[in-house]
Amino acid sequence: METRTLLGILLCALLAGCTFEVGKNATLLVEDQNLFDKKAKLVEDVGIEITSGAFHPILPKGTRTPSADAIVFRPGEEKSKALEVSFFAGLSKSVSKNRHLGTYRIEGFLPQTKENGEIQLTLAAEKGKILLEARELETGRVLKIQKVEP
User: In this predicted model, what pLDDT tens digit does every residue of 31-48 receive, in sequence order?
Assistant: First the structure.
């Protein structure tokens, strides 16, 4: 099975200001009380690595919990059936200066064509946890997510 990283992915849209939720079967990205202050707000940005080691926040510093936000993207390669996404927490625009939270493999989406292939990646912050869900926009299917062991 072919794997692609988020390097070189075209972000189609940032869905800021909207309310999102993750389902009951969301994947636990990290459980870390140090990511939150006493008022349950994030003390760092939480996001993904995009092109050339750049950091793209999904949940910005100061986000109150419970809360969720999402991005929509295309995997970047036609006929790709899986991709790996690296998650980080920090305040730098470079992932090399931020803390790596883990790398996850997302699989099970339909091969991309010019008409389809958008995936919604949702991060949710709640009670000291960051949860992750990936959904194929065309079908609404929740995609399989597995942690990639180092």
Answer: 999 999 999 999 999 999
